[in-house]
């Protein structure tokens, strides 16, 4: 069973590339971020034509997440992250969607970018990460196979970026962002890509600017975190790098983990 994550950067703008990838690689589950579509405009029927069923949590022009499953309908279990205190402002951004697919709990996330910093966007990023950790703790307590995947907007280590100096002032590499990510791993979650690529050097994102793609100036911000019940069944991980080089591609590329049957 292959579980994949893909920040598509506009589901309508990249629909031909997305359908192409789904048809060529056939992941069992595909989690999408930055769909940038209102709920009523999400092109679910296009996925159904090739055998995928979808649930989605949309937002006009920004954010938005979706979970697609091959041959089965994802059973939604949660939409959005609860606030931790009553005095927190309501979160209206569409960044979290969770579902059950073939006995595995899948959470699809689009974590806030946090730039510019300091400021409210970086504060929102850190508070969102606290709420994510709280939800992941609840999932952990269920003792079920679970994957929390998506665009985390965190570069965990210096060897997860082509040039640490180039990103040192970015919200993706701030100590607070990295510490919040490392707390998730300290809670027991397995970073699938890192586990099988311990020396780093794996990129999942290349900016559209400054020739980043042809120069391979990328970094890793798309992650797949697994509970022990799922990590024990992990057989392979991969980055579908070639899809970043296709015409009108997303600036991210698909990332996946292969899970063996029980």
From TrEMBL:
It is an enzyme of class 3 (hydrolase). Residues 4-252 form the Endonuclease/exonuclease/phosphatase domain. Mg(2+) binds at residues 7, 34, 151, 153, 251-252. Probably binds two magnesium or manganese ions per subunit. InterPro entries: AP_endonuc_1, Endo/exonu/phosph_ase_sf, Endo/exonuclease/phosphatase, ExoIII-like. Its EC number is 3.1.11.2. Keywords: Hydrolase, Magnesium, Manganese, Metal-binding. The record marks 153 as: Transition state stabilizer. One of its GO terms (molecular function) is double-stranded DNA 3'-5' DNA exonuclease activity. The keyword Metal-binding applies. The record marks 252 as: Interaction with DNA substrate. This is Exodeoxyribonuclease III. Its cofactor is Mg(2+); Mn(2+). GO terms for biological process: DNA repair. It comes from Pontixanthobacter gangjinensis. The gene is xth.
């Amino acid at each position: 069973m292959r579980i994949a994550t893909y920040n598509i950067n506009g589901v309508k703008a990249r629909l031909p590339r997305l359908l192409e990838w789904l048809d060529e690689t056939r992941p069992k589950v595909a989690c999408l971020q930055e769909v940038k579509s209102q709920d009523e405009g999400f092109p679910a029927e296009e996925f159904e034509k090739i055998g995928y069923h979808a649930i989605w949590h949309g937002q006009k022009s920004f954010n938005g997440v979706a979970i697609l499953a091959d041959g089965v309908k994802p059973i939604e279990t949660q939409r959005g992250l609860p606030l931790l205190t009553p005095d927190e402002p309501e979160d209206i951004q569409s960044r979290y969607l969770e579902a059950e697919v073939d006995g595995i709990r899948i959470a699809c996330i689009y974590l806030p970018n946090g730039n510019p910093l300091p400021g409210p966007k970086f504060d929102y990023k850190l508070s969102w990460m606290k709420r994510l950790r709280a939800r992941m703790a609840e999932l952990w307590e269920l003792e079920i196979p679970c994957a929390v995947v998506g665009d985390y907007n965190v570069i965990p280590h210096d060897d997860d970026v082509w040039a640490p100096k180039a990103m040192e002032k970015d919200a993706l590499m701030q100590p607070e962002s990295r510490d919040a990510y490392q707390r998730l791993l300290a809670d027991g979650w397995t970073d699938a890509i890192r586990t099988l690529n311990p020396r780093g050097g794996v990129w999942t994102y290349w900016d559209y600017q400054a020739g980043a793609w042809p120069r391979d100036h990328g970094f890793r911000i798309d992650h797949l975190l697994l509970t022990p019940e799922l990590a024990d069944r992990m057989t392979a991980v991969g980055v579908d790098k070639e899809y970043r080089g296709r015409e009108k591609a997303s600036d991210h590329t698909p990332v996946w983990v292969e899970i063996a049957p029980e």
